[in-house]
Amino acid sequence: MAEPRTGTPPAETERVIAEAEAFTPAEALARVREAEVRDADRPGHREAMTINLGPQHPSTHGVLRLITQLDGEIVREIHPVIGYLHTGIEKQCENKTFWQAITLVTRMDYLSPFFNIHAYTLAVEKLLDLEVPPRAQYLRVIMSELNRISSHLVWLGTSGLELGAITIFFYSYREREKALDLFEMIAGERMNSRYFQVGGCSDDMPPGFETRLRAFLDEMPARIDEYEDLLSKNPIWLERTKGVGVLPAEQLIDLGVTGPALRAAGVDLDLRKRTPYSSYEHFDFQVPLGTSGDAYDRYLLRMREMRESVKIVEQALDGLPEGPHIADDRKVVLPPRSELATSMESLIHHFKLVTEGFAVPEGEAYVSVESPRGELGCYVVSDGGPKPYRCHMRDPSFVNLQALRPMAKGAYLADLIVMIGSLDGVMGGVDR
Amino acid sequence: MSEIGALIEAALPGAVVDEIEHRGELTIEIEPGKLREVAAYVKAPPLAFALLSGVTCADFPDEPGRFRVAYHVFSLETAGRLRLRAWAGALDPELPSVASVWATANWHEREVFDMFGVRFTDHPDLTRILMPLDWDGHPLRRDYPLGGEEVIFSDEV
Fold first, then answer.
1. Considering only Cβ atoms within 10 Å of each terminal Cβ, which end of chain B, N or C, has fewer?
2. Rounded to whole angstroms, how far apart are CA atoms B7 and B20?
């Protein structure tokens, strides 16, 4: 944290004299005012400057606007203005059926679509009291962890780019492309996938997928070594990230910060371990923790998380259970395509599901998953009909962004950019 | 009554209005006037729900309380979850703010205010957060239409 400028401003001296000499408080006040007016005319006079950062700024990770008050290079106050990317997804969900809403929720945090649908489908399944087959749970884990890697890679590339490290951007996007190719292969979409369905996954792994996935997993640890070679001991990187953006762990918890930003401060909160879902309890992995909670710790932690994700995907592939990839409940799950030409009943089910959707029992559920940014919670209220009565996403980007203001106060403006980057906010998730 | 509900009721008599356990989730409905006291109580030990995951709301136009605000809290020690719920009232929806208990409630409550028009008393900065400051109405209310909003051109503003 930067030290405030030292030295007594000229008016301060006069204020002390004025207060000492004046006979009444009113007179003291008048003399101080007079001194302040004179101070403004003095050469070298300082006053806070308000500048506007964003919403269209290459280093604000999307359309984040910050009204900043600066004293020279030091940030005195920031006022984040959000909502530029608000598209009313929660409102639209209320007007779509439960299975149509999957397509909408993936578009919230556009770097982690699998986590958005994961939280949403888990919440709907909880309301339906629907059992998800083990194979589907493992497939969900595989895709979620791949998504974690691809999301961290985007974070790494863009955060590096903001600090002038251009090579890392090309390196990380090279591997991210491969992850997106895998998404395309299994789900048909590179981004905004709706691979997870209520009850399981839309399809099993296609032929050749496992081979490509294993090739990716074999390659990835060496690639992470490469990134670390570029950055971990790079003097400029160390200079820019060490000691930047530190808040005490208690304050982070009070501000609701979760995910790598909290774990870097040493708090062991990973929902995959603490409240396991989708059979995460079957896998052996570490939860990396930091000590100082600065931007450098968050960087190291994300690097280690990628290595752990590779391990989880390998274990899930090795132990992938046999069986169906989606639950066998024809009132909720679309019948297999092959049956539509031969079975009248399947055709009726298909028609009913596509036109009317399925009814979900009355009630409310809150389920959260550990997204690359922290606790991603989905709160679904059903009135017993085929549409969500209310669907709310507790997005970690939205919550973590609140920590920016206490972090930035008193810091250098250049460090503010590092802080925004190290919190890894995605504006699609912030504004929804 | 659950253990948690009994503890709250013992510490703050009259605070617990109702209790629902559904699909393994415990919901405790709180008397709106006692919300802040209950929040401070569940945050401190022995319950120690230190992390407020979020504040959100659902609109039930036919209910007398109309706006049902839900607070999801999480305990870092036991990894347990609890939902506190309070009705804000139909005509003049208002609840005490819990931003003084959990700092994170600040933006969540601003969002609920923006989307539903529920006012939180003693909130440090209760302004719109996602919608433009001069927006009319509260979009997530059930009587707010989907689509059909006026298009504002830059030369008209």
1. C
2. 16
